[in-house]
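Can you please make up a protein's amino acid sequence together with its fold in token form to help me picture the idea?
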Amino acid sequence: MKIKFRKDGVLITGKDIPSKLHKFGVSKENGVFIPKLAFLYMVEKGMVTEEEGSVLEYDFQVVLKRFKRNDPKIFSKYLIFRDLVDRGYMVIEGYGKAIDLLVYEKGDYPEKPPSIRVIGVEEGEHIKVSKILDELHFSNLNKKRLVVAVIERRGEVVYYDIRSSFGDVDA
């Protein structure tokens, strides 16, 4: 089994790729591609080893540092990703610079698309209200919920469901 690092994840190739690796990745190029957050999760949980004569376990900090070159916010995103996966949600990486994660309601994957968009914010970090309102508007147009995940200094994640009630008010 060989592991090739890319800026957006890893490509694992070889003859005997364990089935547990397929849970977090997609078949691609005679192997399995695993996005960076899922790979970090697998490394932290001890699911990834590379066999070349002996078993080499990947070090979480080394892998994190490697991905951090292309994504300075990766650790914050990872804390949210890990928390949601540990709670039983299916989570994929978001798109663009605004949305960090996309989350499927429990039981929806793979039949339905993700219904929750997540913006991650570290405690004390400033975020413009206009950015949240823009993302809320886009989320509403796409029939998705917007959640702001705040990472506290101790590493705990608190979730805030952002909703617009302007349409509910009678004029």
